[in-house]
Amino acid sequence: KQEVTQIPAALSVPEGENLVLNCSFTDSAIYNLQWFRQDPGKGLTSLLLIQSSQREQTSGRLNASLDKSSGRSTLYIAASQPGDSATYLCAVSVNQAGTALIFGKGTTLSVSS
Amino acid sequence: GAGVSQSPSNKVTEKGKDVELRCDPISGHTALYWYRQRLGQGLEFLIYFQGNSAPDKSGLPSDRFSAERTGESVSTLTIQRTQQEDSAVYLCASSVRTGWNTEAFFGQGTRLTVV
């Protein structure tokens, strides 16, 4: 059974710092990995989608990497801002039909000004 | 529409009552997913639709839960005889199709509180 783990569960950093969020999964037979952002009381916003054949994706200050063989992904946030404060979730698609994304429990990030 | 729309945004119901949660996916998206997020927990997969059919119902927690989708558009998640443990945020997502490279887009969720 695929399990997704995110470490740390919570992270507090001062504004301007670069940071890395970690995601690991137990079954390397994934088809894609997606990073989401969730603000309090809100739904999920898709940040980056990495297909299984890709090693990384970049969007603005965000860079996500994928090492499928070792079951790991990282989300790198450069020059963090208070507006980055949110819960970051990673999810893996576990079968070819992409029927269900399996989510980690998230990392709650707080960026102080 | 511009995004996935869910209604109501908040619902408070008495234990034992039935509730219906609605999801309007992005126009043209054939795949639709329901998830549940309990307080402090991760997202729990409930059910997905490809078109109007639901090939994967494995996540529904009990027979009190059911979902349907009509016209490859709106979906309704129904919870009968609600229990306090059903209290959660119910999230709906849609994607162009199911497939290995498709991106899922989520609605804002319905916060259900059973009292």
Summarize the structure.
The complex is a heterodimer of chains A (113) and B (115). By secondary structure, chain A is mainly beta.
Secondary structure topology:
The complex is a heterodimer of chains A (113) and B (115).
Chain A: E1 4-7, E2 10-14, E3 19-25, E4 32-38, E5 44-51, E6 56-59, E7 62-67, E8 72-77, E9 86-93, E10 101-103, E11 107-112
Parallel strand pairs in A: 2-11
Antiparallel strand pairs in A: 1-3, 3-8, 4-5, 4-9, 6-7, 7-8, 9-10, 9-11
Chain B: E1 5-7, E2 10-13, E3 19-24, E4 31-37, E5 43-50, E6 53-56, E7 65-69, E8 75-79, E9 88-95, E10 105-106, E11 110-114
What does this structure look like?
The complex is a heterodimer of chains A (113) and B (115). With 113 residues, chain A is mainly beta. Chain A has strands at 4-7, 10-14, 19-25, 32-38, 44-51, 56-59, 62-67, 72-77, 86-93, 101-103, 107-112. Chain A is built from no helices and eleven strands. In chain A, strands 2, 4, 5, 9, 10 and 11 form a six-stranded mixed β-sheet that branches. Chain A has a five-stranded antiparallel β-sheet with strand order 1-3-8-7-6, with no helix packed on it. With 115 residues, chain B is mostly beta strands. In chain B, 0% of the residues lie in helices and 50% in strands. In chain B, strand 5 and strand 6 form a beta hairpin. Chain B is globular and about 40 Å long. The A-B interface holds A 4, 31-32, 34, 36, 41-46, 49, 51-52, 89, 91, 93, 96-106 and B 4, 6, 31, 33, 35, 41-43, 45, 48, 50, 55-56, 59, 91, 93, 95, 98-109, 111.
